[in-house]
Specification:
This protein is α+β, with helices and mostly antiparallel strands. The protein has one domain (2-113): 3-Layer(aba) Sandwich (Glutaredoxin). It is built from 8 helices and 4 strands, in the order E-H-E-H-H-H-H-H-H-E-E-H.
Length: 116
């Protein structure tokens, strides 16, 4: 299982803390250190719509020029932005065996995902 994000993001910290407290081992993929491959971004866009993957409330999105924001209208136009500015991706992304389990962090959803 993998958790994707950036370590200084508060939502990522909450997810990592929750997983640690519940003894759930995950590999952490830091976008800042390891980047994002075109293949992985396309794989995610095949499972979730760009509107679910792009954080349009975040500082990165809000700091983009209007013409860049207006050009993102579908998965194909979101892909280059996701690759260029990984901070625009909602965090964290929880993935298991190539399948996106959850985007963001919600304690109730994690509890449901990991109940034994």
């Amino acid at each position: 299982m993998k958790l994707y994000g950036i370590p200084n993001c508060n939502t990522v910290k909450k997810a990592r803390d929750w997983l640690t407290q519940h003894d759930i081992a995950v590999e952490f993929h830091d976008f800042k250190k390891h980047g994002l491959s075109n293949e992985l971004a396309q794989h995610w866009l095949g499972q979730a719509d760009w509107e679910a993957l792009i954080n349009r409330k975040g500082l990165t999105w809000r700091g983009l020029p209007d013409e860049v924001k207006q050009a993102v209208i579908d998965n194909a136009s979101a892909l280059p932005l996701m690759l260029e500015k990984t901070s625009v991706i909602k965090r964290p992304l929880l993935e298991k065996n190539g399948k996106l389990l959850h985007i963001g962090f919600d304690e109730a959803v994690y509890t449901e995902l990991f109940k034994h």
